[in-house]
Amino acid sequence: MAVGLKACQTQSAKPPEVPPTPYPAATQSGSPVSLYGAGATFPVYLYQKWFSEYNRINSNIQVSYQPVGSAAGIQQFIAATTDFSGSDTTPTDADLAKVKNGAVLIPTTAGSIAVVYNLPGVSGLKLSRKLLADIFLGKITSWNDPELKALNPALALPNQPITTVHRSDGSGTTAAFTAHLSAISPEWKERVGTGLSVQWLAGTGIKDNAGISAQIQQATGTIGYVEYAFAKQLGLAIATIQNKANQYVSLTDESVRAALSTVQFSEDLRGSVPDPGGETSYPLVTYSWVLAYQKYADSAKAKALRDILQWGLTDGQKFASELGYVPLPEEVAKKAIAVLSQIQ
Question: Per-residue pLDDT tens for 142-171?
Fold first, then answer.
């Protein structure tokens, strides 16, 4: 079986190589089943790994996932043109009411958003909460701005224009990033706000995480935001960000876990934290969800999806760290596994 993945990624943004896990010879359990999903680019490397590895266990199940962005994923889910969708933000109540076959929200992984930049010879850039918002508001336009220099006295910041890069498509990464900016900047909240898509006041719009990553890698003077897995694989410079406790925190597994531990989930497993507390918390984190239906016309599809997700929420979590994600906390994984029975 071929596992389909039509990724909107450049040649420089290929998934990291993770050695395959030894399994017994693949079985063919039941009739062949094909599943089609679409949505978030954030978790695409993990999903690609999951579907490839699971195919080695059960070669009768074929999965195709198109990373078209969270907004498109939600819309396709509502329109019932997918068997499942991926999103880094959960649908609104109004959106869920449009899903005729009912919806099950399953957190599958978690991760962070890196603020990445391209300034040759400059590493260790620090950004305060005010500077982060002002740069993306277009109020600070030069890398040698006095406020930037005062915060980073040891860095040789060039006399060069700042070019901000943001998502042009509807994006869960954008939703999480703009939610944080709204939480830390009253001006951002009033003038731009939060959403899968917003009206940016400055910068250049580019499609998907891979597109932004490639642009940052290629163009000096740029700054943008991407899911950490993309920054990790391309070796992009990542800014240290001031958190709610006024500490400057680097993006590490530990600082991301500290932030994610503050997320409180609702009964239907929705949850986010736009500005996590705690001195060691990295401030830009999000979960990612699979959106599944409660009722499928084809019971074989329902069973195949349950089986794949059960495996992904257990054995599949071991691939998360290597690919730039954070494994689900045990209590979150248990809650996610418990709701799989709703998929029928």
Answer: 999 999 999 999 999 999 999 999 999 999
Q: Is 229 helix (H, G, I), strand (E, B) or coil?
A: helix
The pTM (predicted TM-score) of the whole model is 0.88
- Angle ∠(259,260,263) on CA atoms, nearest 5: 105
Amino acid at 208: D
What residues does each domain of the chain span?
34-111+286-342, 113-260
Please write the tens of the pLDDT for every residue from 252-263: 999 999 999 999
Distance CA 15, CA 324 (A): 10
**Assigned architecture for domain 34-111+286-342:** 3-Layer(aba) Sandwich (3.40)
Cα separation, 252 vs 256, whole angstroms = 6
pLDDT at 24: 47
DSSP string, 291-330: EEES--S-HHHHHHHHHHHHHHTTGGGGGHHHHT-BPPPH
Alpha carbons 46 and 308: distance in angstroms, whole number: 13
